[in-house]
Specification:
GO terms for molecular function: oxidoreductase activity, acting on a sulfur group of donors, disulfide as acceptor. InterPro entries: Thioredoxin-like_sf (IPR036249), Thioredoxin_CS (IPR017937), Thioredoxin_domain (IPR013766), Thioredoxin_H-type-like (IPR050620). Keywords: Disulfide bond, Electron transport, Redox-active center, Transport. Belongs to the thioredoxin family. Plant H-type subfamily. By secondary structure, the protein is an alpha/beta fold. The protein has a single domain, classed as Glutaredoxin. The protein is about 45% helix and about 25% strand. The chain is built from five helices and five strands. A five-stranded mixed β-sheet has the order 1-3-2-4-5, sandwiched between helices. Strand 2, helix 3 and strand 3 form a beta-alpha-beta unit. Helix 3 packs parallel to helix 5.
Length: about 130
């Protein structure tokens, strides 16, 4: 009984929150867990020096709260260049929508309405 409660608690970790990814190992773990659970992953490719990224950060955090069944990841492109390169990220912010390892959609730029609409669209399709 205690093990199942611990598992349920572990599954809820990160739900409704933005998870900052700082290592390739963290990235792999988050993607594998989301794929196993067939969850939508929304990735915010950002940079500390990017003004529009800072504007979008609270919008992204609000979406994470509104859609707790999706996984919201934040990746600093300067910190994890290989991941940004893997997904051909050339502008910040870039938001990717990944489901079971496949990129389903992307939003490039600080476009609040488009990001909100696409999160709603892809989260509903889960």
């Amino acid at each position: 009984m205690a093990a199942s409660a611990a598992t349920a608690t572990a599954a809820a970790v990160g739900a409704g929150e933005v998870i900052s990814v700082h290592t390739l190992e963290q990235w792999t773990m988050q993607i594998e867990e989301a794929n196993a659970a067939k969850k939508l992953v929304v990735v915010d490719f950002t940079a500390s020096w990017c003004g529009p990224c800072r504007i979008m950060a609270p919008v992204f955090a609000d979406l994470a709260k509104k859609f707790p069944n999706a996984v919201f990841l934040k990746v600093d492109v300067d910190e994890l260049k290989p991941i940004a390169e893997q997904f051909s990220v050339e502008a910040m912010p870039t938001f990717l929508f990944i489901k079971e390892g496949d990129v389903k959609d992307r939003v490039v730029g600080a476009i609040k309405e488009e990001l909100t609409n696409k999160v709603g669209l892809h989260a509903a399709a889960q």
